[in-house]
Design a protein that fits this description.
single chain, mainly alpha, 16 helices, 0% strand
Length: 393
């Protein structure tokens, strides 16, 4: 395994941590800045929106530049943003810091996916992407609980200083360990990268990403309410139960990467189908504590098991212009996150109860399953007509 993949994973760990850890620190942040919980929540929403902007804008702006220096520059942006958040004397400066840090998120994962796949043979590309995303899953399993504990005991700013330190470590790792893989800059242009979006399969891949991730997060966003109000868990046990979800993310990402190296489309079909089954069963048995614990683990595993395949699929169908499409897919994950949270919230607001987000998530996942089946059918049809033009799936 190329050591550069570890450096990319460390960067992914830091980025995942800065995105998710603030959820456990919102009360502390709100008290410090004397703002409402809703206002503090915009530190999360503002971050998510900025991820989409950065995924498209920064990736497009740097498409002709050598990828290693771009990754270094993105990590510098990440360090500056988190340091500014830690130093913020008021809410507005903290928001600026969050936005700056978020801008690097989508571009780092988009460009990093291309760099990771370039470091390994063709039959190991999805696995290499999975290794990078292992940092993101580890952030959920280990980083968020311990980052929250650090912030609660030493002040929320200490957590963001620690995240800045992780950014420095990742920066050094990329400088030392990631090779400066040459790519023909003269053959790369924004027009060529945008040309990837003339492919129907690229758009279908983006649709599967939005819907597949949206289905998982439709159920997960409000899972704390489901566990306390429906399942009957004590609120103090929820953070530790959520670690099971993180373990599922970690395992699913690893298995999904290995499976996608053998067949991307069949892997996506398996994981999306399995996620649908888990969500339906979870909806029926949400009042059972044992069933809920199992569902948390499986929901994370099957939900995140799609990620290496989804990222590989869009790069595959983008052909020789994968960078912007890869970044767009990272933005699509965040759009899916927002879609799931919004749709699940509609169910609760309509008075359908705290199991309604699970059923809504299952419905969104069903649509994702239909889209991937359509995409597979069209790819098979195109392959029969011109097999040399269609990537193997």
């Amino acid at each position: 395994m190329p050591l550069g993949l570890i450096a990319l994973a460390i960067g992914a760990f830091g980025i995942g941590l800065t995105e998710f850890v603030i959820m456990g620190l919102l009360p502390d942040v709100a008290n410090d800045f004397a703002v409402s919980e809703a206002a503090a929540g915009w530190l999360i929403s503002g971050y998510a929106l900025s991820v989409v902007v950065g995924a498209l804008g920064l990736t497009a702006a740097t498409v002709r530049l050598p990828r290693k220096p771009v990754l270094v520059g993105l990590l510098v942006l990440f360090i500056v943003g988190n340091s500014l958040t830690a130093l913020a004397g008021n809410y507005e400066v903290a928001m600026i810091g969050r936005v700056i840090a978020a801008l690097c998120h989508g571009a780092f994962f988009g460009i990093g996916s291309v760099v990771a796949s370039d470091m390994v043979p063709a039959n190991k590309k999805a696995g290499a992407i999975a290794i990078m995303f292992t940092g993101l899953t580890a952030a959920n399993v280990l980083g968020v609980p311990f980052g929250t504990l650090l912030g609660q005991h030493s002040g929320w700013r200490s957590t963001f200083w620690a995240i800045s330190g992780i950014g420095v470590l990742a920066l050094i790792g990329i400088l030392v360990l990631v090779p400066a893989i040459k790519h023909a800059a003269e053959g790369i242009s924004l027009r060529k990268e945008l040309g990837a979006f003339t492919s129907l399969q690229v758009w279908l891949s983006l649709g599967v990403t939005i819907l597949g991730y949206g289905g998982m997060f439709g159920a997960f966003t409000y899972i704390a309410y489901t566990m306390t109000e429906i399942t009957g868990f004590n609120a103090t046990t929820v953070p530790w139960l959520l670690m099971l979800f993180g373990v599922g993310l970690f395992v699913g990402n690893w298995i999904g990467g290995r499976m996608a190296d053998k067949s991307i489309d069949r892997t996506l079909l398996f994981f999306i189908s399995a996620l649908l089954v888990v969500l339906v069963l979870f909806g029926f048995f949400a009042s059972n504590q044992v069933a809920t614990v199992i569902a948390l683990l499986l929901m994370g595993g099957f939900g995140f098991g799609t990620v290496p395949g989804l990222q590989s699929r869009i790069m595959q169908y983008a052909g020789n212009a994968p960078t912007l499409a890869s970044g767009a897919n990272i933005g699509a994950f965040n759009v899916g996150n927002a879609l799931g949270a919004w749709a699940g919230g509609l169910g609760i607001a309509a008075g359908l109860g705290y199991t309604s987000p699970i059923w809504i998530g299952a419905l969104i996942t069903l649509v994702a399953l239909i889209v991937i089946l359509v995409a597979m059918g069209l790819a098979k049809k195109a392959s029969a007509v011109a097999p040399q033009l269609v990537p193997a799936s």
